[in-house]
Amino acid sequence: MEPIIKVENLCCQAGNRYLLRDINWQVAKGERWVVFGLNGSGKTTLLSIIAGYKMPTGGSVEVFGEPYSQDNILSVRKRIGWVSSSYFDKYYTKESALTIVLSGLCGTLGVDSTVKADDFIRAKALLSEWNLDRKFDFPFSMLSKGERQNVLIARALIAEPEILALDEPGTGLDVLAREQLLRKIDQLAAETAMTIIYVTHYPEEILPIFDRCLVLRRGRLIEKGELTEIMTTEQLTEILEADVTVTYLQDGRLDLRVK
Amino acid sequence: MISQFNTSSRVQELTGRVRRCCCRYCGSPLELKRITFSHFEDSRIEIFCTHCSRIEYGIEPEIYQSAKYFVEHFDFNWYTYLDDNAQTKQMTIAKICDILSWQNRQLGFMDNNGFKVPVIMQQDWQNESMTISDEALDKLIKEE
After folding, report:
1. pLDDT grade for B140, boundaries at 50, 70 and 90
2. Taking the model in full, what pTM does it have?
3. For residue A110, which residues of chain B lie inside 8 Å, CB to CB?
4. Residues of A in contact with B56 (CB under 8 A)
5. Residues B9 and B54 in one domain
6. How many other CB atoms are there within 10 angstroms of residue A52's CB atom?
7. Of A11, A97, A165, A177, whose CB has the highest number of CB atoms within 10 Å?
8. Which residues constitute the domain of residue B49?
């Protein structure tokens, strides 16, 4: 099957420092991947390049069979629902929740004339679905961390994307909000054939719907393949360079303990 | 402020709005700004209100003036469940702008390029205070 994401020898430098180096990765339609790694391993950088919000300094990225260009950047972005508070928190402060959700239809940070009256209805329905029904017009900065995360998820979903890329969506959420989020992602995965990429540094967030895993460490790809083969005590002890124990719980979730 | 752009339809549209529109929240002029880093102009340019520091699509100034007048004159607050402060007032004005804009589009008075019909504003609505000419003032004094 032709991959919908194809990354070859991908590099991204900031000054002399490599954020990513020689990454090779292919994702086929409908696959569910976890991108795992510690802080600073390059997970967010990789996702932001794939989603078309950051440019690589070397190698190539093809999404839906074509590289990014001036002609396709916005149309390709619309087909990828990208949720990343570490990215969007830098740009959104006073923008209303509704405007942010609608911007997902444009593939940009703001809105333009492509947004139609019906889109407002859909955006409001999505915000209501994600527990923001009285906060459509609230500035982003007035919302709690969990609410901001939900706004970004609604933004990602409004264009009915073929790829959903979630960059550490559980970070900063309290335990109940995180479980609620994971349940909704689980439901979304069950109801759609969407390709889902879930970036995390917490193995306990990994749902049984994810069967593939890519591991990054200090900007380099360490492992990729079947999740159950990578998320083991032996492998993670080596990957994390720490003495850890991995246990699979009855519901298929993971439990990681650092000794 | 960016002075030169390529000719993509999105950038053209945003440029037109910047020339024509003001911020829905504060009424200030808008600017085009390169917000994010990208090789592609279409994906990095947004309309921005530097006064509010927000990415803002903007509204026709006539609509903003009407909305501001309505909110101030009738002491109208859409968000009664929020603190009654300057931010809430701005949010209310922006909401009224959206409503007026929707209505004008529905009635066929406006499209993506602004008003399609001549707009004659009530000049004494333009600001919080009325502007009275010297002649009119003299007349008022004489009448009193």
Report:
1. confident
2. 0.87
3. 46-47, 55-57
4. 95, 110
5. yes
6. 24
7. A97
8. 1-58
